[in-house]
Amino acid sequence: MNGMRVLMKETLKSSPTPSPCETGERQPSMAWAASPHQTQNRSPWSWTSQPLELHTFWQFRHENPQTRVGGPPPEGLPGFNSGVMLLNLEAMRQSLLYSRLLEPAQVQQLAAKYHFRGHLGDQDFFTMIGMEHPKLFHVLDCTWNRQLCTWWRDHGYSDVFEAYFRCEGHVKIYHGNCNTPIPED
């Protein structure tokens, strides 16, 4: 699974509410928001634990020094990592906002605004949407997508790396991005 390992036994034990498998529900209760003003139905994602967007959005950040875009959590908007995400596809299909955001002109407008040239496909797309409409997303705790890659620390971002990489708590899912080995139990 390219570096992903789900620690299901520990996850089920530590979950505050029953999983859909335990309750017989057919789909999770979290959903894509139909409007940026609806915060009770958001799509769960985890922030990237790398200064990737600090790098990617450098020009926008230079032109907008007070921006949260690309900054580290908890105050910043570091961008999303699509290693772990939960999408309500039906709600997304019914969302007028999401339909509008899929239009090529909208994507080009956001890319131009943020001087964005991504290379990570869906992750880049949702990161751009998250910069513009952060209330559409529910941010998962870092323990649900514990990214292990340290490449950015060794390639020019050692001074800020720990602000992005820090993750406290019992890890539920390890993400061996950058081909990083997964810790043994």
TrEMBL record:
<dbReference type="GO" id="GO:0140560">
    <property type="term" value="F:xylosyl alpha-1,3-xylosyltransferase activity"/>
</dbReference>
<dbReference type="InterPro" id="IPR042465">
    <property type="entry name" value="XXLT1"/>
</dbReference>
<protein>
    <submittedName>
        <fullName>Xyloside xylosyltransferase 1</fullName>
    </submittedName>
</protein>
<dbReference type="GO" id="GO:0005789">
    <property type="term" value="C:endoplasmic reticulum membrane"/>
</dbReference>
<feature type="compositionally biased region" description="Polar residues">
    <location>
        <begin position="36"/>
        <end position="46"/>
    </location>
</feature>
<feature type="region of interest" description="Disordered">
    <location>
        <begin position="1"/>
        <end position="46"/>
    </location>
</feature>
<dbReference type="GO" id="GO:0016266">
    <property type="term" value="P:protein O-linked glycosylation via N-acetyl-galactosamine"/>
</dbReference>
<dbReference type="InterPro" id="IPR029044">
    <property type="entry name" value="Nucleotide-diphossugar_trans"/>
</dbReference>
